[in-house]
C-alpha cells in the first residue's frame, strides 16, 4: 500500500529541473551585486529561485540593498542571462529526458508550468524543441494573463491543471519541482510534489515536499500509481 495518493496527470517546473539554467541566473545576479560590493548569498538564492523575473528583481534589490530600481535590475539581469542563452545551448538536467519520454510514451498527460516569460521560454528551449513537443501544454507564468500571482502562490499549477482537456482535480496532479518556492506553490494548490533540489538547498527548505529524489528518473512512479520506468 503506497503512502502517496495515486495521480493521473503530471506537471513539471522547467528551470533547474528540466533545463540547467540556474547557474546562469545565479551568475547574472551575482555579477550585478558585485558591482555594488554585495554578495548573492544562498539565503537570498532560496528566496529568489522559482519566482517570476519581476519578483526576482524586487527581492534581489531589497535583500541586498542595491542602489538601483528593481526595473533597472530586471533589465540588466535579462540582458546578461539572455545573452548567455543566445550563445550557448542549455543542457538538460540529469534524468529529465528519460522521465519525460517515458511518461509521454505511456500516454500520461504532462505539462510544463514555468515562471519564465514566453520569449524567455522560446529562447531557452530552442535546442530541445522535440522534447518539449511531448508536453500537452506549456504555461509561462511570466507572461500568461491567467497566472495572477507567481510562485509560491498556487496559481500557475491550478491554471496548468485546468488546461488539460479533462481538467483533473488538483489531488490527481503530481508536480515536479526543484525550488522551495515551487514546492510551496504545489502544496498550496493541493497537489503532491516531488522535489529534485539543488545541493545548496538546505534540508529545512525541503520538508514540505511529498518526496525528495536526487534525479528525475529515480522517482518511484509506481508509488503514485504511474507506470514505472523499467
UniProtKB/TrEMBL annotation:
InterPro entries per record: HAD-like_sf, HAD-SF_hydro_IA, HAD_sf, PGP-like_dom2
Species per Swiss-Prot/TrEMBL record: Dendroctonus ponderosae
Name of this protein: Pseudouridine-5'-phosphatase
GO molecular function terms listed in the Swiss-Prot or TrEMBL record: phosphatase activity
NCBIfam families according to UniProt: HAD-SF-IA-v3
PANTHER family: 2-DEOXYGLUCOSE-6-PHOSPHATE PHOSPHATASE 2 (PTHR18901), PSEUDOURIDINE-5'-PHOSPHATASE (PTHR18901:SF38)
Amino acid at each position: 500500500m503506497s503512502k502517496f495518493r495515486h495521480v493521473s496527470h503530471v506537471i513539471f517546473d522547467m528551470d533547474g529541473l528540466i533545463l540547467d539554467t540556474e547557474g546562469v541566473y545565479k551568475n547574472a545576479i551575482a555579477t550585478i551585486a558585485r558591482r555594488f560590493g554585495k554578495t548573492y548569498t544562498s539565503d537570498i538564492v532560496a528566496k529568489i529561485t522559482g519566482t517570476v523575473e519581476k519578483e526576482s528583481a524586487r527581492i534581489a534589490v531589497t535583500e541586498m540593498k542595491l542602489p538601483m530600481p528593481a526595473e533597472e535590475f530586471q533589465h540588466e539581469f535579462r540582458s546578461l542571462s539572455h545573452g548567455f542563452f543566445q550563445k550557448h545551448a542549455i543542457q538538460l538536467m540529469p534524468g529529465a529526458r528519460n522521465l519525460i519520454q517515458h511518461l509521454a510514451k505511456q500516454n500520461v498527460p504532462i505539462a510544463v508550468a514555468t515562471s519564465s516569460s514566453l520569449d524567455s521560454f522560446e529562447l531557452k528551449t530552442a535546442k530541445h524543441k522535440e522534447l518539449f513537443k511531448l508536453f500537452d501544454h506549456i504555461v509561462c507564468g511570466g507572461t500568461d494573463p491567467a497566472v495572477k500571482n507567481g510562485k509560491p502562490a498556487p496559481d500557475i499549477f491550478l491554471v496548468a491543471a485546468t488546461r488539460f482537456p479533462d481538467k483533473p482535480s488538483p489531488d490527481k496532479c503530481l508536480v515536479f519541482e526543484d525550488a522551495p518556492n515551487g514546492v510551496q506553490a504545489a502544496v498550496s494548490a493541493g497537489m503532491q510534489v516531488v522535489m529534485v533540489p539543488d545541493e545548496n538547498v538546505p534540508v529545512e527548505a525541503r520538508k514540505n515536499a511529498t518526496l525528495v529524489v536526487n534525479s528525475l528518473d529515480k522517482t518511484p512512479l509506481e508509488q503514485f500509481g504511474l507506470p514505472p520506468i523499467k
